[in-house]
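User: My collaborator sent over this chain with a note saying "see what the structure looks like." That's all I know about it. Can you take a look?
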Amino acid sequence: IALERSEAGAVAFLARWQNSNETMTVAVGAAVGAAELSPVEFEGALLLEEDDIDTSRVRWYVTDVVTSSNHRRMGVANLLMDEMERYAFLRSETETTSVTLYLHVKSGNDAAMAFYQNPKRGYAKPTRDELMGLNVDKLACNAGTEGQILLCKTLAKDNVVVLNGHYYNDETTAAETATTVLALATGFGKPKAKHAQKKKKAKRKRK
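Assistant: Without extra context I'll predict from the sequence alone. Here is the result:
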């Protein structure tokens, strides 16, 4: 399935731990987060005929953003989102093209809504312009997210983070992108140590 999605244009992103502190329980290079950016979900969801599709708007769908349970609240999800937005913008943007990312959030998932709608991320309910030519019900059906809340963000040069001077171009393959390493510096926090977790469990038992 992953190969089929890759061939259809979906791109996977991995966040790998790059802190070599010996007190950490996670190995250097271990995956601590993953995400996927895809055009696949828009198949059959664009209302215009292929020849009439508005080429001035490029659409991507954020299918998954997953963080290791021991590495939450450390900036991993933000780094993944930054990387996906940067990839989408630099691969697709021209002077006459707008790039919009769409995603769904489950109703009642206040944490996810707060994350995406935070000013830093800038996702919001689609405007009339961002919905033009899009069958939102078909999009949700394709993504398996019926009944969920649709959010989106139209990217611009002033809201795309460029990290490490790393740029994408038309020759950058999906395989190269899938191996992108997002370095998690000490400033983003530390993973929970096993011994610390054991102490917490012990305290709960005494209560």
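A starting point for your reply to your collaborator: Residues 42 and 139 are 6 Å apart (CA to CA).
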